[in-house]
Specification:
mainly alpha, 4 helices, elongated
Length: about 90
């Protein structure tokens, strides 16, 4: 049986009367209360925003090939990268 999580957080916002009227009308058309509509819409927007920022889309086949090549055949570490790794190990004890 799945546990029901109680709603305990509160969110308040100031908005223009025309924005509230717009949201109220949309909520009515979707058969929901205003607060349900706003919460659902905000959650959908948040999930989509996170999805767009947490994923990498390589539409061009050349970009896909370059990305795969970099993963499968990475270049050898440079002198500067090796020095930075040594400094990191010295500072962190790793």
């Amino acid at each position: 049986m799945e546990a029901v999580q109680l709603k305990s957080e509160r969110l308040e916002a100031r908005l223009r009367p025309e924005d509230k009227a717009l949201m109220q009308r949309a909520a009515e058309l979707s058969g929901r209360k205003l607060s349900e509509f706003v919460i659902s819409s905000a959650r959908e927007a948040a999930v989509e925003t996170l999805r767009r920022h947490e994923s990498l889309v390589l539409g061009d086949p050349r970009d896909q090939a370059a990305f795969a090549a970099a993963l499968l055949q990475p270049p050898a570490p440079s002198r500067r990268l090796k020095a930075a790794a040594r400094r990191y190990r010295t500072l962190t004890g790793n």
